[in-house]
Amino acid sequence: MEGARTTVNLRRIVYEHLETEGSRRGLSLFNKIICVLILLSALTAILETEQSLVGGHARLFLAAEWLFTVIFGAEYLVRVWISAENPKYGPGWAGRLRFMKTPAAILDLVALLPVFLTFAGSEPFLLRAVRLFRILRVTRLGRFSQAMHFIIEAVASRRYELMLSVCAAMFVLVVSSTLLYFVEGEAQPDNFGSIPRAMWWSIVTLTTVGYGDVFPVTPLGRILAAITAVMGIGLIAMPAGILAAAFSDALQRRKKEAEAEESVRPFVD
Predict the structure, then answer these.
(1) CA gap 16, 24 in Å, rounded
(2) Distance CA 154, CA 158 (A)
(3) Of 92 and 180, the one with more pLDDT
(4) Which of 114, 202, 224, 245 is 20 to 30 Å apart from 262, CA to CA?
(5) For residue 27, is it left (φ>0), alpha (ψ between -120 and 50) or beta?
(6) How far is C-alpha 253 from the geometric centre of its chain's CA atoms?
(7) Cα–Cα distance, 221 to 182 (Å, whole number)
(8) What is the mean pLDDT of residues 83-105?
(9) Cβ distance 198 to 184 under 8 Å?
């Protein structure tokens, strides 16, 4: 009984140091170290794509990757172990399985697999694709970032408005592509000979990128292109405005929550 109680107490202590959800105390030293290692691992994966840098240091890069994999693997197992302390998942192995099925845990596991999968194939393309999965570790930083929580909260609170703006953009994309197909199809069959081909021009124009590799040459086509370009400005501004308002609302809510906690704390103390 005493050993089991000691294990539970140890698990609780580790959980309080590693868990970041709902914590306002900031990152623990362990989580700060993990963040640094994630960045170093992603940097190593990026540098490894440059053969002139790898050169005769292939063993060094491989050793570094194995070191990162062992550290992140141990961290993954520890997080699975302490997940029993989180009320959201519940105690025992059932709770741990619920934690392992969460998107964050699955992403952690996927980021660990590349170093093992490189031994499963010898095709150069497969090896490159598998190794680049290590860059997915950067996305794990979202777990430790308050800014990422703000972004998720803002997008979730405005998901219906954002969906409407996406639907409007898709509608304009299809209509403009169809019109340019009819107007420019005969003059430029390679670029506008079908609606899917014309969509490339519509996407580039609506997003205001304007590569200039494809453009209408007929007078009517240019008029339609001008209208599409002007509409593209509005379509880009619409989700930007929605997200800006959502971020402002999220920050105001967090500020009010922090002020409420500060006002209650003296009574608690």
Answers:
(1) 12
(2) 6
(3) 180
(4) 245
(5) beta
(6) 24
(7) 9
(8) 82
(9) yes
Residue 6 in contact with residue 14, Cβ under 8 Å?
no
Please tell me the total number of residues recorded for the chain in this structure. 269
d(CA 187, CA 183) in angstroms, rounded, equals 8
The pair of three-digit structure tokens given for residue 9, joined into one six-digit string: 């107490």
CB atoms within 10 A of CB 185: 17
Residue 12: what residue type? Answer: R
Cα separation of 141 and 144, whole Å?
A: 5
Residue 54 pLDDT: 74
d(CA 248, CA 114): 39
- How many CB atoms within 10 Å of residue 212? 7
> Which residues lie below 8 Å from residue 36, measured CB to CB, with a gap of 6+?
none
User: Which pLDDT tens digit goes with each residue over 144-193?
Assistant: 656 666 677 777 888 888 899 889 999 999 999 999 999 999 999 999 99
Tell me, letter by letter, the H, E, C secondary structure of the chain: CHHHHHHHHHHHHHHHHHCCCCCCCCCCHHHHHHHHHHHHHHHHHHHCCCHHHHCCCHHHHHHHHHHHHHHHHHHHHHHHHHHHHCCCCCCHHHHHHHHHCCHHHHHHHHHHCHHHHCCCCCCHHHHHHHHHHHHHHHHHHHHHCHHHHHHHHHHHHCHHHHHHHHHHHHHHHHHHHHHHHHHHCCCCHHHHCCHHHHHHHHHHHHCCCCCCCCCCCCHHHHHHHHHHHHHHHHHHHHHHHHHHHHHHHHHHHHHHHHHHHHHHHHHHC
CB atoms within 10 A of CB 84: 19
